[in-house]
Amino acid sequence: MAIGGSEALEVSEAAGTQLDFLDLGGQIAARSPLQLFWRRLRQDRVALVSAGFIVLLIVLAVAAPLVIKILGLPGPNVQNLNLTDEFGSPLGPTSGHPFGVDQLGHDVMSRVIYGTRVSLEVGIIGTALSTLIGVFFGLVAGYYRGWVDTVISRMTDVVLSIPLLLLGIGIGAACAVKGCLGGAIQPGLRVIIFLIVFATWPYMARIVRGLVLSLREREFVDASRALGASDARIMVREILPNLTAPIIVFASLQIPSNILIEAALSFLGVGIRPPTASWGQMIASATPIFNTAWWYMVFPGAALLLTVLAFNLLGDGLRDALNPRGAR
Amino acid sequence: MSDPELQIAPGPGERAGEEPLVEARDLVKHFPITRGVFLQRKVGAVKAVDGVSFAVRRGETLGIVGETGCGKSTTARLVMRLLESTSGQLTFDGQDITKVKGAPLKAIRRDVQMIFQDPYSSLNPRKTIGSIISEPFAIHGLLTEKDERRKAVQELMETVGLNPEHYNRYPHEFSGGQRQRIGVARALALKPKLLIADEPVSALDVSIQAQVLNLLRDLQRKFGLTLIFIAHDLSVVRHMCDRVAVMYLGRIVEIGSGDALYAFPRHPYTGALLSAVPVADPSRHGGKRRLLTGDVPSPANPPKACRFHTRCPKAQDLCSIEDPPLEDKGTGVLTACHFPLTREEVAEMGLATVTQSTPAG
Question: Domain check: are A192 and A63 in the same one?
Answer without folding.
Answer: yes
